[in-house]
Write a structure and sequence with these properties.
Layout (H helix, E strand, L loop, with lengths): L1 H24 L13 E2 L9 H7 L3 E4 L7 E5 L5 E3 L2 E2 L3 E4 L2 E4 L3 E6 L9 E8 L5 H10 L3 E2 L6 H4 L3 E9 L2 E14 L6 E13 L3 E3 L5 E3 H8 L3
Parallel strand pairs: 1-4
Antiparallel strand pairs: 2-3, 3-8, 4-5, 6-7, 8-9, 9-13, 10-11, 11-12, 12-13, 14-15
């Protein structure tokens, strides 16, 4: 009887050990911090990282947000990315309820055969401090240039637009921030103001090639758009 009990204990021990090993191999180990795998959009290499990004998130082929003549791959899995110390979220959370926030990241290219990213575009909707992203960029990149004055159309629409020039690797960054509306909690028992930012990280050499042979620099197109 004693030998049978020892044998059963041994079988249980072996079973538990195999179960633990299986969880580690399948990624179910709760000690793994998924935030360590988030990709900082400011550190993406436009020349080499396109393939890696396609494997990281579920990107779908779309038209570029700012030009029908550029192809773009878009994903709503913004929770796999971060900006500096800010971890991007794909949901709002109100009173414990999670609601999709319709944020996305888009990678624009000149054509489908090129692996060179020309512009990274982030649309991020969030609840909280409206200057959250602006302050993080200011901390990381220094002071920004204001693109619109008090009498501009953008200012009248309460949109604040900024540009950081020469942030490295021949790139510039444009930020537009504004209040978009309200997010409603389950049962309409609570609501929050939605803040939105548009971020464009632009290769300053990138161009839009039009069918009539004309060309336009992406940085000039976007700068004109957010300076109105």
């Amino acid at each position: 009887m004693q030998q049978k009990t020892i044998f059963l204990i041994f079988l249980i021990f072996i079973s538990l050990n195999i179960s633990c090993q299986t969880k580690k191999q399948t990624g179910d180990d709760k000690t793994v911090d998924p935030t360590n795998m988030k990709i900082d959009i400011l550190k993406i290499n436009f020349s080499t990282d396109f393939g890696k990004l396609l494997k990281t998130a579920d990107f779908k082929v779309k038209e570029s947000e700012f030009s029908e003549y550029l192809q773009a791959e878009r994903t709503t899995n913004v929770n796999l990315f971060k900006l500096g110390d800010i971890e991007l979220l794909s949901t709002y959370e109100i009173n414990g309820d999670k609601i999709p926030n319709d944020s996305y990241i888009s990678l624009s290219r000149q054509n489908g055969d090129s692996d060179l990213i020309e512009t990274l575009h982030l649309r991020y909707n969030f609840i909280g401090d409206k200057d959250l992203i602006f302050n993080e960029l200011k901390k990381l990149l220094g002071a920004a240039e204001n693109l619109n004055n008090d009498e501009s159309i953008n200012a009248l629409k309460e949109k604040e637009n900024f540009i950081w020039r020469g942030i490295g690797d021949n790139r510039s960054l444009i930020l537009s921030q504004f209040t978009d509306g309200s997010a409603i909690g389950v049962g309409d028992v609570d609501s929050r103001r939605i803040n939105s930012v548009l971020i464009y990280i632009i290769d300053e050499k990138s161009e839009i090639n039009y069918p009539n042979g004309q060309k336009e620099k992406v940085i000039e197109r976007l700068e004109n758009r957010f300076s109105r």
